[in-house]
From TrEMBL:
Homodimer. The gene is pyrE. This is Orotate phosphoribosyltransferase. Its cofactor is Mg(2+). Pathway: Pyrimidine metabolism; UMP biosynthesis via de novo pathway; UMP from orotate: step 1/2. Its EC number is 2.4.2.10. Belongs to the purine/pyrimidine phosphoribosyltransferase family. PyrE subfamily.
Amino acid sequence: MTDRDDLLKLVRDLAVVNGRVTLSSGQVADWYVDLRRLTLHHAGAPLVGRVLLDLVDDWEFDAVGGLTLGADPVAAAMLHAAAARGGRQLDAFVVRKSDKAHGLQRRVEGPDVAGRRVLAVEDTSTTGGSVLTAVDALREAGADVVGVAVIVDRGAEKAVRAAGLSYRSAFSLADLGRQG
């Protein structure tokens, strides 16, 4: 089995939760993909890093991150996977949901992204709202956003592409045996 196969099995086993939930988009669904159960799991996190690095291997960027909280463990997994592979230096960053009123008052935390090519990530996305909020903050901070990558796409691809961004997902709803 490949890393992607192993990751898909873990997504199905650990992250797909049946039951009525309200998504961050405000939409109501009869099932949920709780990818924090996977991205913060001892076997899941390394797979997330490797699979997403493979997914965007042909894109040039040197920092990865997105809107806190969903993107944080994804970015950290990619940072560690890149370091383990060697040959690629990859920084991670965190985009706050709102401006910080104290300290350095930075919306994007971590190494400076100004003038850098960055990848925006998210664990799962239904409308693209969270990742596009991160993209706006990154652009305001002077970053060149090369694209968006997510573990599971629940329907955000159209909105992200409409915003002029390249988009890739490791898995679709069909991979999970689900529909929107």
